[in-house]
Amino acid sequence: MTVKKTTAAPAAKKVAEKKATKAAPAKKAAAKKVVYLTSENAGFRAGDVYQTLAAAEGKALSVAEIAKKANISVEDVYMGIGWLFKEGKIRDENNLVTLA
């Protein structure tokens, strides 16, 4: 009596498993942007926000619109808005920001 060895099937299965693990790339965690809070940085962001509002010619803008037009982050817009509110240079109109 001869016994047949079936080593080909498990080996093929292992190769298929290895290929499947190589095909799935590892997910990378999204890097968080660090906002440095200095008086110089806050002043520059206030200038960016002010210039964007001045270019809007009296039109009230949302925070997202200011961030997009000034090419800065939303966090930087909030920092600049805080500075300008403190100086009385901007005002709120129905949750939109405009020059005072």
Sequence of strands across the biggest β-sheet: 1-2
- How would you sum up the global shape? elongated
Q: Main beta sheet, described?
A: 2 strands, antiparallel
Number of DSSP-assigned strands: 2
Written overview of the protein:
The chain is mainly alpha-helical and 100 residues long. It has 4 helices and 2 strands; from the N terminus they run ααααββ. The chain has helices at 8-23, 39-55, 63-70, 74-87; strands spanning 90-93, 96-99. It has a two-stranded antiparallel ribbon. The longest helix is centred in the middle third of the chain and has 17 residues, at 39-55. The protein is elongated, with a radius of gyration of 29 Å. The model has no long low-confidence stretch (mean pLDDT 80).
Describe, in short, the structure shown.
By secondary structure, the chain is mainly α. The protein has helices at 8-23, 39-55, 63-70, 74-87; strands spanning 90-93, 96-99. The chain has a two-stranded antiparallel sheet with strand order 1-2.
Top keywords for this entry?
mainly alpha
Layout of SSEs?
Blueprint (H helix, E strand, L loop, with lengths): L7 H16 L15 H17 L7 H8 L3 H14 L2 E4 L2 E4 L1
Antiparallel strand pairs: 1-2
